[in-house]
Amino acid sequence: MLKKVIVISNNANSDIKWLKTYNEELLIEGLNAIVLDQIKDAKKVGRMSYKHQLFDIFIFSRSKAVLKTIYGIYPYARLIYMPDTFNSLPDLSKEAFSSHAHTVCLDAKNVSQQMIRRLKSYGVTVFTKVDKKTDLYQAVLAGTDGVFGEDITKKDVLLKGDYPYPPFIIAHRGLHKNAQENSIEAARAAVSVSADFIELDFHMTKDKHIVVNHDDTLGRTYEKDYVIKKDTLKSLQSIKMTYQGKKTNEVIPTLPFFHKQIKDTNTSLLIESKITSAQAMKKMKNILRDMDKPPLLMSFYPIALVNFKKYLKEYSRGFLVDFQTNHMSIPDIIKITNKYNLILHPYFDHKKTNLTEILKKRGIMYCPWGLRDTKDLKQAFLSGYYGINTNESDFFKDIVKYTLVKTKYTYNIGDTLEIDLFTDKGLKVTGNIEVLFDNPLGLTIHQNVITGATLEGLTYFYLLYEVSTNDITYTIMSDLVTLEVKQNG
Q1: What is the pLDDT of residue 2?
Q2: Each residue of 373-405: pLDDT tens digit?
Q3: pLDDT in tens, 268-280
Q4: What is the 3-state secondary structure (H, E, C) of 418-454?
Q5: How far apart are CA 240 and CA 460, in angstroms?
Q6: Cα(272)–Cα(300) distance, rounded to whole angstroms?
Q7: pLDDT tens per residue, range 407-456
Q8: 168-396 has the same fold as 6-157
């Protein structure tokens, strides 16, 4: 069934209770959401949150000033930006992050699978404001993380199918089965198998160039062992990268050069910082501005997260963590992800009971690494995580990432109407129509073909397409389709 969609509503059957009216006593009980639009209210709630340490509260606002006010008083609450308008999706993501929110809440009429998937590729969690049942289904089918509105229950979001779109596939240091890790060749191989992201590592040279390499020295993957921070770029590029003991034609790439090789493809960058200095982050800021789409950032180092937030606040950040060695409590995890607007990147094999369910309920994106075998890959893929960071990105090369369908049709009774369905690679496929609201117009259908109807009017449906590849079977859902039924002639 469909991955978990968070229900934020004004009833006891929701995951997060929307308090349309609230006081201090109500706020400190349970997992709640409130809407604030005035600075004076923001100050009041900020002080209340500080007093009671209310990190497990969702605060929605259309005002960036309100969000910044609350953050300045108590930075651990979950802040959600509700824009009235925005210029572009990259601009929207940067506005949200700059306002201390890694979540946006959009009106249902504006959302689609491609839109939400793209926003999520920038590291943004997406909630959707719904006013009626068709809004609700449009939001759920578009792949929203949560729905926000009056009188919604968990039953309302139960639709057939596994995904509007599956997890992002991240090629760990590129696809390096036949090339050196973090090489341009490995990057191109990752693009060739349609990886959504290439994960890479960066360091800074003595003369302040940002270069791509995992280790702080070159000995493991180059013909000589130079220390990156102690050598100039010219010196470092005087030696060649090796692969399986043999010299290649590649030299250590700068980050701008690396990005240029995958620019204008469908693959983005997930950039791990191996250094923490403010100087490096300032240098990174200029480099990231020239990228064609916002990358994701991450690090193991807390000081790097602090400097990400200070100098690279317009971009998504992530926290790499191994819970076998890092014994953070779950409340601490929630607090740090809220404060630093983080995607959590944990080692896949951990013993924290119910961690993933707790994070999903709060819309905290979860992207495991360290998957050991095919069994782990399948389990992670079918668990509905944000992404999967793997050396085996080619294992997923044949998955269907999303489907494309026209969202408005007219049908004349007595005719035959085929609903065209395409995969993300442009392949036309046969799906099955699922009519909503108990088929009120009496459509007769066979798979994706409508052959009859008994009444005129508007009706709504979506299509399901079953994908089977590499022993992974899942069902993908289309966007919501509106059908107008008319008498022929």
Answers
A1: 55
A2: 999 999 999 988 999 999 999 999 999 999 999
A3: 999 999 999 999 9
A4: ECCEEECCCCEECCEEEECCCCCCCCEEECCEEEECC
A5: 59
A6: 8
A7: 999 999 999 999 999 999 999 999 999 999 999 999 999 999 999 999 99
A8: yes
Q: Report pTM.
A: 0.95
- pLDDT single digits (tens) 214-233: 999 999 999 999 999 999 99
Query: 62, 95 in Cβ contact below 8 A?
Result: no
Domain ranges for the chain: 6-157, 168-396, 403-486
Q: How far is residue 390's CA from residue 169's CA, in Å, rounded to a whole number? A: 8
Architecture of domain 168-396: Alpha-Beta Barrel (3.20)
CA separation for the pair 243, 235 (Å, rounded): 20
CATH topology of domain 6-157: TIM Barrel (3.20.20)
- List Cβ neighbours of 143 (8 Å cut-off, separation of 6 or more): 113, 116, 117, 120, 126, 163, 164, 165
Q: Scan for tokens 């090789």, then name that residue.
A: 261
CATH of domain 403-486: 2.60.40.10
* Residue 427 burial by Cβ neighbours in a 10 Å radius (0-12, 13-18, 19+): exposed
Q: Are 52 and 25 in contact (CB under 8 A)?
A: no
